[in-house]
Each structure stands twice: as structure tokens, then as C-alpha cells.
């Protein structure tokens, strides 16, 4: 039979019991959630949608004095292949000018593609964005204006999940088309990129509901 004293003792002890349960749970989540996302990001890099699409959206990357960086070149070359194989009928290049550069990534990518046989009227660009989400938000305007429906997202394999999820959240019918080759070939180069993508994907997963 409980007494007022035992009831009061129980009331005082429940916060400690709650903390005893909550702290391991929170720590477990903070460890397991990023690990799960890391594995998911890595696995998603192997997903390739081979169905035709209206356009390929090429994610921006660095340019060096009006020339695409090796990473960007891989993306552009893959997009050109998609166009020449008839899997897409247009390309959309994204990316503005990096810090200290007078050249926009998208313009560099478009010029490179046009020189290699993509008709100028089939190569579109947005040249104001600086980060992945803004790349896709600006690309969405072109996709809507040109009445493109189905689009392929072109980027490095480890960048693919975050890019496709963001594109879909923005209302695009987006599907993965990672580059078949990558500058990130060994775990010495893959590891930092995977950590980078895990960090930013986890941030996005938490904050996505507060974006427009």
C-alpha cells in the first residue's frame, strides 16, 4: 500500500528515470541516423534510371579559368552522352560564379557541350546559384518554362541522393543518372566526400520542411 511519502518519492524520481531512458535513446539516434544515411547515400550512387527523359539537369561544379574542373567535366561528358544517345532531348546546366571567378559554371558547361555537338537551342542554363538546393530551384524554372516533364539529374554518384531528393521536394519528376566514372576513385578521395554528403544530407533531412 502506497503512502504519501512513497508517492512523493516516486514523483521526485520519475525525471531521473526519464533521463536515464532518454539520454541513451538520443545518443543512439545521433549515431545511428548518420550511419544509416551514409550507407543509403553510398548505395544510392549505384542507382541509374535508364528510361528516356525530357532533359538532363547537370549539377554545377568548379571551373578553372573558363574550363570545367575534372569533376565538372565528368558530369558534362555524361550529359552529352545522354543527349547523343537520344535518352534526353535537352540539357540544363546549373551554377553561378565561384568566389573570385568571373565565369559562371553553367556557362562553362554549356559552352563545352555546344562545342562538342549539342545544339545551342537544346542547352539551357541558370547562372545565379551557388549551392545544390539553389541549383535545382533555379533549374526548376527552366524545366517549367520549357514544359519538361521527366528529368534526369546528372552528378557524381555520392552527390546523387541529396540532389534527387531535393529535386523531388521542389516538385520535379527527377531520376538519378550518376556519372559512370568519377574523379573520386579511391577511399582516400571518396571518404571525405561521403562524410561531406552525409553531413549535408542529414542537415537537409532535418530542415527540409522549413524550406520553400
Short description:
This protein is α/β, with parallel strands linked by helices and 212 residues long. It is built from six helices and five strands. Helix content is 53%, strand content 9%.
Descriptors for this entry?
6 helices; 212 residues; single chain; alpha/beta
Question: Topology, please?
Answer:
Layout: H1 4-44, E1 55-58, H2 70-84, E2 91-93, H3 105-115, E3 123-125, H4 132-145, E4 150-154, H5 160-169, E5 173-176, H6 187-207
Helix pairs in contact: 1-6, 2-3, 4-5
Descriptive report:
With 212 residues, this protein is α/β, with parallel strands linked by helices. The protein has helices spanning 4-44, 70-84, 105-115, 132-145, 160-169, 187-207, and strands at residues 55-58, 91-93, 123-125, 150-154, 173-176. A 5-stranded parallel sheet has the order 3-2-1-4-5, sandwiched between helices. Helix 1 (4-44) packs across helix 6 (187-207). It is globular. The mean pLDDT is 89.
Characterize the largest beta sheet: strand count, sense, and whether it forms a barrel.
5 strands, parallel
- Strand order within the widest sheet? 3-2-1-4-5
The overall average pLDDT, rounded, is 89
Q: Strand portion, in percent?
A: 5-15%
Shape: globular
The share of residues in helices is 40-55%
Note poorly predicted spans. none
How would you classify the helix and strand content by structural class? Answer: alpha/beta
Order of helices and strands: HEHEHEHEHEH
Amino acid at each position: 500500500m502506497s503512502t504519501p511519502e512513497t508517492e512523493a518519492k516516486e514523483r521526485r524520481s520519475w525525471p531521473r528515470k526519464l533521463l536515464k531512458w532518454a539520454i541513451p535513446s538520443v545518443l543512439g539516434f545521433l549515431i545511428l541516423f548518420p550511419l544509416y544515411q551514409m550507407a543509403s547515400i553510398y548505395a544510392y550512387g549505384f542507382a541509374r534510371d535508364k528510361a528516356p527523359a525530357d532533359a538532363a539537369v547537370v549539377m554545377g561544379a568548379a571551373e578553372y579559368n573558363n574550363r570545367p574542373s575534372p569533376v565538372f567535366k565528368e558530369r558534362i561528358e555524361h550529359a552529352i552522352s545522354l543527349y547523343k544517345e537520344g535518352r534526353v532531348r535537352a540539357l540544363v546546366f546549373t551554377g553561378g560564379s565561384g568566389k573570385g571567378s568571373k565565369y559562371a559554371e553553367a556557362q562553362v558547361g554549356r559552352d563545352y557541350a555546344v562545342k562538342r555537338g549539342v545544339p545551342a537551342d537544346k542547352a539551357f542554363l541558370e547562372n545565379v546559384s551557388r549551392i545544390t538546393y539553389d541549383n535545382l530551384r533555379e533549374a526548376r524554372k527552366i524545366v517549367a518554362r520549357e514544359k519538361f516533364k521527366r528529368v534526369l539529374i546528372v552528378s557524381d554518384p555520392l552527390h546523387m541522393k541529396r540532389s534527387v531528393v531535393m529535386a523531388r521536394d521542389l516538385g520535379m519528376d527527377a531520376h538519378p543518372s550518376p556519372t559512370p566514372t568519377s574523379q573520386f576513385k579511391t577511399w582516400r578521395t571518396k571518404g571525405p566526400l561521403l562524410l561531406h554528403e552525409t553531413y549535408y544530407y542529414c542537415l537537409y533531412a532535418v530542415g527540409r520542411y522549413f524550406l520553400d
